[in-house]
Design a protein that fits this description.
By secondary structure, this protein is of the alpha+beta class. The protein is about 15% helix and about 45% strand. Strands 3-2-1-8-7-6-5-4 form an 8-stranded antiparallel sheet.
Amino acid sequence: MRKFWSLVAATAIAVALVAAAVMPSDAARKPHSDGASNVFDGVWSVVIDTSSGVCNSYRVSIRIVGGRVEGGDGDYSLDGSVSSSGGAVVTVSNSAGSAVGYGRLHGSSGGGWWRTSGGECTGSWGATRRSSVGTAATY
């Protein structure tokens, strides 16, 4: 179970990775999911820090394409979006539970916060743009 929460925390932050303390209603109200190019599209390096709970801290890569957050290795699902104004919301889930992250991207960096669905772990995340959409990334 600890491995799951560590994985969820890493992914949620990475997913949440996408911003820096935006209210959930902002990200949910303005998703950019029509597939059109988004100024935040590209590969991002996300650092996920745990402030409470037994989840580990991580550094992961994610990709934003058309405002949709992509990433993962098949052990979990990732569903998220980044609005054209930078508001981000991401949910990471697998058979054991889920975590959600919120935040905001500004230019080539951003950050926010995350929480597991049951509150077992919470923390913050920070992101830095690594490259453009056309560049290969390792997840």
